[in-house]
């Protein structure tokens, strides 16, 4: 995963649109109208920001602080080139005061700074944190903005209002969701709604839902169902995780965990969670007392789910089999990509016991979920 990068020295810039066009000409990217529109908008922002530099046109004409350029919020399905365009923008931008950081990492930093400010018993801790974050910073670029934590949702409007309006920071972000779908169905979502208003007021919302899923190309040679369980199966789903998240395998120990808000004050611990990909054990999902609403929360939040340790089940495991059926129904209906390690093929998982006949529908869905047609579908409930 690209680590947080805070640049203090500016290098001679080349425009992001020119770099994008070179990738098209070299055959590394395919022509994509949505991508081009996003590249053009980032190109415009780059020009505005670089014009503020001491040698830039605005720096020559005006001595007062210039207005904060409008930011950009790029959203779209998996593998549509959002992170690639963000990387091009950050690499092309010829200013010193820029930072690119994964949103999850940024909010962990915010939480730590808030604790420090509250321990000082200072007034307005959120404003003070924004001031600390904005020191020597003109552009803040986020990859994969997603909001699952109630505490984060409650402070984001105040934090980003302070960053953008008070500190003059321009924000560029990517997300799998349009702004109005962020923290959808979250607890106390009314506290979060001012943040959505802020995004739509201060950032240009640019959709990327072109015809090519570049991330799918990366996993084209990896099967989704791995049986029997063992080192080889684990290595395969591990590789899928790294390819889907752009995380470096050698940095595996630092893959973040997280908590998914299930509503009603309940949360679900997610052992590994990054860029819309989550890893769970079968034991956590199906041996604990869970219902359809829990599985729907997972299906809405993640475009890819990796489930490890699916066992063969018999009459004594009827409850686990029923929960597994509900899990697969939710993932299937929301077109979630599924990778697993299991003790057997789908048709051999639950052959005897209450509901074994009905389980055949789950088997059919599991087989369809392995197909190229299913894997090419975008995340989200059909219709």
From TrEMBL:
SUPFAM superfamilies: P-loop containing nucleoside triphosphate hydrolases. Keywords: ATP-binding, Nucleotide-binding. It comes from the Bacteria. This is AFG1 family ATPase.
